[in-house]
């Protein structure tokens, strides 16, 4: 059975653990000569102008379709991808522009769980050696007691230390990934699709484990997912990404109950629900995600939005903040009053 996350950061906490401001990430896709011959750009903007923060002990979910840029954001925060512009402040330290050597100490406080639970484990090493890797990298003492404690924290017997990755089930491999990530007691855990490829029952077990570790160890979490059931059961806040931008953010329960952006509403209505009597009005989005090489003018979602008007095609929407910690970017938000006095759906 899935248990809901109930954390809300104390009001007295003014400084977040992680603060991302106007983050931009670009990838080089062709050389200067090829670009000159074809008249196309040398790079593509994968993430542009993303801002959010994560409080101590909080879980924030970044949600969006494949290609929305959410994984790129996570990998940039972890230092695996270089930021083109913007700011990433962790524990009061600016991370952008720093070299790998100077980031080594910071990385002890930040860990990432990769999407492929088995593929991210070395097939040549036994579980005990895999869990010892973080200690070796940072020159720390390794004892059998530390390995046993990590296995106990993720609900696995100590005998598991003698197995190879191919001898693990999907759920066990995911727990080993979690154990390796928390080995050095980080302050921030980044989980990329933590339930991908798992049965529903095992998904619930993994989500409960992450919630328990957050409460027990005081870890902050950044969850990267397209699975809205994951969001609802583990995160206190969520941010919706589309084409490398955040189009809406706010408390999870509020966004589930009253989304303002049509993209958020479409994602929610497409998500299956266990209660057949709790079926929202279906809101479909048409067409494919536009190419990052040819971003639409105006509101970038207008090519797929069922409520788009002429203004949406011409003018980019400004961010609207109806309450503290919330915002959305839409000219004609849902649950608002239209020009003719009628309520939007």
Quick tags:
11 helices, single chain, 4-stranded antiparallel beta sheet, 7-stranded mixed beta sheet, alpha/beta, 345 residues
Task: Chart the SSEs and their pairings.
Layout: E1 18-28, H1 32-38, E2 43-54, E3 59-63, H2 70-77, E4 85-90, E5 93-94, H3 100-107, E6 110-113, H4 127-137, H5 144-153, H6 170-181, E7 188-192, H7 200-217, E8 220-225, H8 228-234, E9 237-242, E10 245-251, H9 252-257, H10 262-270, H11 310-314, E11 327-328
Parallel strand pairs: 3-8, 3-9, 6-7, 7-8
Antiparallel strand pairs: 1-2, 1-4, 4-5, 9-10, 10-11
Structure description:
The chain has helices spanning 32-38, 70-77, 100-107, 127-137, 144-153, 170-181, 200-217, 228-234, 252-257, 262-270, 310-314, and strands spanning 18-28, 43-54, 59-63, 85-90, 93-94, 110-113, 188-192, 220-225, 237-242, 245-251, 327-328. It is an alpha/beta fold and 345 residues long. The chain has a 7-stranded mixed β-sheet, sandwiched between helices. A hairpin with a 2-residue loop joins β4 and β5 (93-94). The longest helix has 18 residues, at 200-217. The radius of gyration is 21 Å and the shape is globular. Mean pLDDT is 86; it is low at 4-13 and 337-343.
